[in-house]
Amino acid sequence: MEMSGLRKVDPVKHEQKRGEILGAAIRCFIRDGFRGASTTDICTEAGISPGHLYHYFPSKVAIIEAMIDLGLARSAEKFEKILTAPDVIEALLVDIEETSLRFRPAQILNLDGLAEAARNPEFAEIIERHTRAVRRMWSDFLRQAQDRGRVDPGLDPDATANILIALVDGSRAMPIRDPKLDIKQSVEHLRTMLVRFLNPPDAQSAAIKPRIQKTGRPLKLVRKR
Q1: Tens digit of pLDDT per residue, the chain (225 long)?
Q2: 43: domain CATH number?
Q3: What is the CATH number of the domain that holds 156?
Q4: Domain check: are 50 and 65 in the same one?
Q5: Which among 204, 183, 206 is positioned nearest to 194, based on CA atoms?
Q6: Which residue range forms the structural domain that includes residue 25?
Q7: How many other C-beta atoms are found inside a 10 Å radius of the C-beta of residue 52?
Q8: 75 shares its domain with 36
Q9: Model's pTM, two decimal places?
Q10: Which residue numbers delimit the DNA-binding region (predicted)?
């Protein structure tokens, strides 16, 4: 029997509206925190009614999970791009600078998410799921980079992934701890850390070997009298 009375959903417009609501939710979370931002706030920011919201997301938790899934998808694309770069470690460093040291929204959401997870068991489960997915992506990225001779094959990918996740989290905390942080200097120190930690031994030696400055004139021998 034909259900002519039911309205057909345009999948393209549906996804577009979901994206708009997610954007509004992210702005609310940045402004008021995961705990402080309510579904009413999100509806107001998105310009929709609460009843309209539930056509797209059944709850605030569903919005947060969708936001995390979107971030994971973007991270997967990012890792694929970094793997194709001429210098994997330099590309990784550029990404950390852009998405951690200089990107205020990521700094706020990251720290607030960890704080909320420490006091909210339901939110803690979301963060744990997200962390497991991120760790898998880091581990896969490192294994592929090792197979291509771009990362030290002696490193354990899973253990290294944990260290790099901590480094990214720390990079996002640095500008909040010190608003006057010298980001350029911090990037240079991060470059030294990543080169020494990740580069294969042969490439590492070449990368940190002191450069011998050439002078325009040969050295003169001093004769003893």
Answers
A1: 444 554 577 888 889 999 999 999 999 999 999 999 999 999 999 999 999 999 999 999 999 999 999 999 999 999 999 999 999 999 999 999 999 999 999 999 999 999 999 999 999 999 999 999 999 999 999 999 999 999 999 999 999 999 999 999 999 999 999 999 999 999 999 999 999 999 998 875 555 454 444 444 444 444 444
A2: 1.10.10.60
A3: 1.10.357.10
A4: no
A5: 204
A6: 13-58
A7: 13
A8: no
A9: 0.82
A10: 38-57
